[in-house]
Every structure is written in structure tokens, then in C-alpha cells.
Amino acid sequence: MPPSTVPLATTDASPSLGDPYSAREADTTFRKITWRLLPFLFVSFVVSQIDRTNIAFAKLQFMHDLGLNDAAYGLGASMFLLGYILFEVPSNLYIQKVGARATLMRIMLLWGIASVAMSTVRTPMGLYVMRFLLGVAEAGFFPGVMLYLSQWFPDARRGRITSVFLMSVVLSGMVGGPLAGYIMTAFAGAHGLAGWQVLFVYEGLPAIALGVVAYFVLADSPEQAAWLTPRERAIVADALRQKRSQATPGHGLRLALRDPRVYIAGFVYFAIFAGLNTLGYWLPSVLREIAASDLVTVGLLSTIPYCVSLIAMYACSRHSDSRRERRWHIAVALCVAAGGFAFVAHGDGSRVPVMLSLTCAMAASFSALSVFWTIPPVYLTGPTVASGIAMISSIGGVAAFLSPILVGWVKTRTGSFSLAFDALAVLLLAGTVVLLRGIPAHALRETSRSGSPGQG
After folding, report:
1. In sequence order, which residues have a C-beta less than 8 Å from that of residue 408 and are 6 or more positions away?
2. For the chain, is the Cβ count within 10 Å smaller at the N or the C terminus?
């Protein structure tokens, strides 16, 4: 049989058409799926990231209003992750029972309402409570989408799809900073609210609208997608057939809790997310110290690291897909990120070197993140996948919870970010070692369509 055609396999989960399909036909099918799902998920995650990190810009105004110091702000920022972590695994298990459409709709509606309610905060305790509730509302969104994408795209295509989805995080940073600076400056006093209160209201409303749209845009699985033809559904099922054939009976959560692979991958994600989360919540404060005092300028400067990250993560994930190699792409990126944090900690504080170092740290961290999320669906198998992905995300959430608290504490005690950035550099290097020693290349190999194994 010519290499350009693939025999359509018979599976219980899909119709069998018998006739072979070409690589071009498969590309057309997955391109159709991409354009149906990715734009909506992309926009949704942009809004998600803006709503969870706009507190970094609101901080520049509400510190005085709420009587906070840097340590208290760090705790408030982290309370989001506490709620997120506690409810993440149950939310990801729930998505398997009721489907992606209902689950993602529920998450978007609730986090939009919670984000708007942030405008009512009047005390430090109120900040802690509302951030916790925002985390509860948004719990399960990211791992749920990762699981959802794994049910539509095979591993060979998932790297680029994942990177495109994760570019929404970068885009949120690119638009979120200038948008926050503009809203807080231009609309201060609107509706009788302070600028930071208007920010929470205006940026929370889009999530509520997206929750309604989700019901009409998403399908729970390829088999239920009325916008795919029977042949297209069969092509998708065939592409996913090998992964499904690896499933084994058992209880997913119980197996995941006993699976050391979950904790190995979780530590790597812990290291990646600690660096990214620190930059997400503290970048505006660092920029205000070294570069500017007005909100609009801080917002504009904050876009520079995100713009570079957008290019870097796509290039890294594309190269990773073309080589079918994951581990070393992540390892090199983690080392570059560690170097960036270390240089900020030990540099002379000059504006340009600090900006370059922060940009390298962020771009490398995002590159590692985009490739990392191609590993769990392949590294884990059978019923462990859904629970394992949620647990890995939760372990990363622990890093996201601890990092703002520790950075805020260090900044309050020492007046500098240096010690905190040193610790992040060491953590990223430790993540590199665990990745290369704990996740063997052979564990990431899948048989390609030509019959040759992919590389890890």
C-alpha cells in the first residue's frame, strides 16, 4: 500500500468505512476540527488568564485601599490556587461523567461571576475569601481542556495544537497589561468605583458570555460532533485508536495516586509553573521598580516578555513535533529559564539587562510548558490518564500557591527579589534533573503512521 494512504481501522467507537484515507484527507479533517475548537478555547483561556492575574495590576492601586503589604498581597494572590487545587481533581473527574460542554460552561459562568464579585472586596480577609472562591470556580478548566484536546488529536499533532492553545496564556499577558493600565486609568471613578474595582467588573463579564456560547460551540467527543461527516469521525477514531487500545481496567484516581510517574511529571510541572507564576504575579511590580511609575507604561513594558515568548514557544513546540522529541527540548528551556532568574538576582539592576533576563526566563518557561503538556497523555496510560493529568496540574498548582507567598515574604523581609529568584533558578535546575532521570525516552515513544517509533 502506498505510504500516502492509511487503512481505516475498525473500532467499536467509530464507524468503519473500509476504504483507505490519504494523509491529505487526514490533514483536512484535523484542520477542520482545529478551526472549530481552537478559536473558542483560545479566547476562553485568554479571558481565564486575564481574570486570574489582573490582580497583579490591581495591586498597584489597592495596596493602600486595603491596607496590604507585599506579603499579604502574595497570600491573597495564592488563595486562588488553594481553591483551584482542592477542587481540580474532582472537576476533572466530573467532566468524564457529564461531558466537556456542560463542565466548561459551568466553569466559565462561575468564574465570571466570582471575578466581578472581586470588585466588592473591602478588607484583606475579603480579598482572601474572594480569591479562594475564584479558584474554586475555575478549578479544572486547564486540565479539562488538556484532556479534551487529547480526545480529538493524536500525539503526533498534539504538540502544535497544545502550543497554540497555550499561546493564549502569552497573548493574555500581551493584552492584559496595557488593557489593565488603560481601564484603571481611563475608567477610575466610573459607576462610583475605584479603577481597580472597575477592572474586575469589566474583565469578569466576558467569561459569563463565553459560558453561554460554550454550550453551542463545543461537542463532548468526535462521535457526537454533528459538524463532522461519518467518514471524518472514523478518520479521527482511527488516528486515536492506538492510544485507546492501551486502556486497562481499573479505578483511575486510585491508580493515579499509586503511580510514581504522576509525581515525577508533577515535580517537573511544579518547577515550570513556579517560575511562570512568579512572573505572572510579580512582573508588574518588578517593572515598576526598575522602569516606570505610571500604570500605562508598566502595562506596555509588560508586553515585551510575552511577545518574545509567543515566538519562542511556537518555534520550540514545532521543532519538538518535527523531531518527535520532548525531554531535551524541555530540559534546555528549563536551564535557560534558570539562567534568566539567576542573572536578575545577581545583576546590577540596570533596566535593559533586567528586561532581557526576565524576557529570557519567561520565553524559556513558556517553551518548556508548551512541550511538557504533550508528555502526560503519552507517559500515562489507560484509566490513569484523566486523573493523572489533573493530579499533575494540581501539583503544579501547589507551586503556584506557594511561589507568590514566598516571593512576597522575601520581598517584605529583604526589600529585594534576589533571594526568591535564586531559589527559582535552583528549582528549575532540579526539575531538569528529575525530567531527564525520571522520564526515560522510551516511555514517550509511540508508533508513528509509517510504523517507526517516535522519539522521546
Report:
1. 70, 71, 72, 73, 74, 75, 77
2. N
User: How is residue 4 written as a grid cell?
Assistant: 500516502
The answer to whether the CB of 58 falls within 8 A of the CB of 201 is no
> Does residue 110 lie within any of the structural domains?
yes
Residue 398, domain CATH: 1.20.1250.20
In a domain, 452, yes or no: no
Q: Evaluate if residue 1 carries a pLDDT over 90.
A: no
Q: Which residue has the cell 486547564?
A: 142
**438 within some domain:** yes
Predicted confidence at residue 292, as pLDDT, reads 64
Give the DSSP H or E segment for 401. Answer: helix 384-414
**pLDDT, tens digit (0-9, with 9 covering 90-100), for 330-370:** 999 999 999 999 998 887 777 888 899 999 999 999 999 98
The reply to whether 5 falls in a domain is no
Question: What pLDDT, on the 0 to 100 scale, is given for residue 150?
Answer: 82
Please give the Cα distance from 436 to 160 (Å, whole number): 22
Q: How far apart are CA 453 and CA 72, in angstroms?
A: 51
171 Cβ contact partners less than 8 Å away, ≥ 6 residues apart: 42, 46, 306, 310
SS3 408: helix
Which helix (H) or strand (E) is 5 found in, with range? strand 5-6
Q: Which of 430, 442, 31 is nearest to 228 (CA)?
A: 31
Tell me, what amino acid is at 179?
L
C-alpha cell at position 18: 473500509
Per-residue pLDDT band for 398 (boundaries 50, 70, 90) equals confident
* Residue 250 CB-half CA count within 13 A: 18
Element (H, E) at 43: helix 23-53
Cα dist. 184→132, 188, 235 in Å? 23, 6, 49
Q: What's the pLDDT score for residue 453?
A: 40
How many domains does the chain fold into? 1
User: Measured at the alpha carbon of residue 399, what is the angle toward residues 328 and 257, in degrees to the nearest 5?
Assistant: 80
Q: How many residues does the chain have?
A: 456
Tell me the three state secondary structure of residue 439.
Answer: coil
Per the structure, the complete domain to which residue 209 belongs is given by 23-443
CB 110 within 8 A of CB 48: no
CA distance linking residue 152 with residue 377, whole number of Å: 12
- Residue 272, by phi and psi: left (phi above 0), alpha (psi -120 to 50) or beta? alpha
Angle separating helix axes 195-217 and 55-66, nearest 10 degrees: 140
